[in-house]
C-alpha cells in the first residue's frame, strides 16, 4: 500500500492536531507531499509543510492553496478536516454560535474546495475527503448545533460528488465516532473525574473503546487514494457501529 500517493500533493485542513495530524502523517508515509493548513501549524507532523491559515477567511484559504501550488505545482487530494465542537440543545446555543460553528465546519470546507477545484480538475487522481462525524446521522443528545453542521457536511459531500464526478473528482466523507484526540482529551480533562469519564466514554461505544485517530486516518487515506476509485459520494463510518447499528440503551 505504501507508495500509492507517490507523486501526489495533498492538503489537509486542521492538520496540526488529532485526526488531521494523523491523516497528514499517513498520506506522507504513502508518498504524498503534504501541506497542513491550520490556525496554529506548530504541531504538524515531521515532513509536512505547515501553512498558517483560517478556513473561515476566504483570502487566507486562497493564499494557502496558492502556496501549495507555488511549492509543488499541483494539488490532487484535499482533506477538509478542520472543525470545532459545540454542546447543548437548541435552547443553549445563540445565533452567533450557530453562525460561528457552521462557518468553520461547513463553509470552511466550501471555501477550501472552491479554491482547490481549479487545480483538482487538472489532476488525474483528484479526490476530496470531508471529515464529518457520527453526529451527522446518529441523533446524539446535547449536540444539536454540532450534529446539524456535520449532517450538512455529509449532504454537501453527496452534492459535490454529483457535481464533480464527471470531472474526475471523487468526493467522499468519513464519519468518525468519538476519537482519541486532543479535542476529546480537553473535554475529559474538564470533567470532575477524568478517569471515570474516560471509562464511561469507552463503555458508551458499541465496541467498548474510543476510535483512534489512526483508524480515521486509514479510512481517509483509502477514500483519498486510487484504491477507492469507484467510491463516490459515500460516508464511511469509523465509529464502532454507533450510527449504523442504531444501538439504543437497554
Ligand atoms: P482537534 O481539536 O484535535 O484538531 C482540530 C484542528 O483544527 C486544530 O489543529 C485546530 O487548530 C484546527 N482548526 C480549528 N479551526 C480552524 C480554522 N478556522 N481554520 C484552520 N484550522 C482550524 O480536533 P480532532 O478531534 O482531531 O477533530 C478533527 C475533525 O474530526 C473535526 O472536524 C471534528 O469535528 C471531527 N471529528 C472528531 C471526533 C472526535 O471525537 N475527536 C469525532 C468525529 C469527528
From TrEMBL:
Q: Does the keyword Nucleus apply?
A: no
Q: Which UniProt keywords apply?
A: Oxidoreductase
Q: Which GO terms describe its molecular function?
A: oxidoreductase activity
Q: Which domain of life is it from?
A: Bacteria
For whether the record's keyword set contains Oxidoreductase, the answer is: yes
Supply the SMART domains for this chain: PKS_KR (SM00822)
Q: Where is the Ketoreductase domain?
A: 8-168
- Quote the InterPro entries the UniProt record gives: KR_dom, NAD(P)-bd_dom_sf, Sc_DH/Rdtase_CS, SDR_DHRS6-like, SDR_fam
Family as reported in the entry's similarity comment: Belongs to the short-chain dehydrogenases/reductases (SDR) family.
Protein name (record):
NAD(P)-dependent dehydrogenase (Short-subunit alcohol dehydrogenase family)
To which species is this protein native?
Kribbella amoyensis
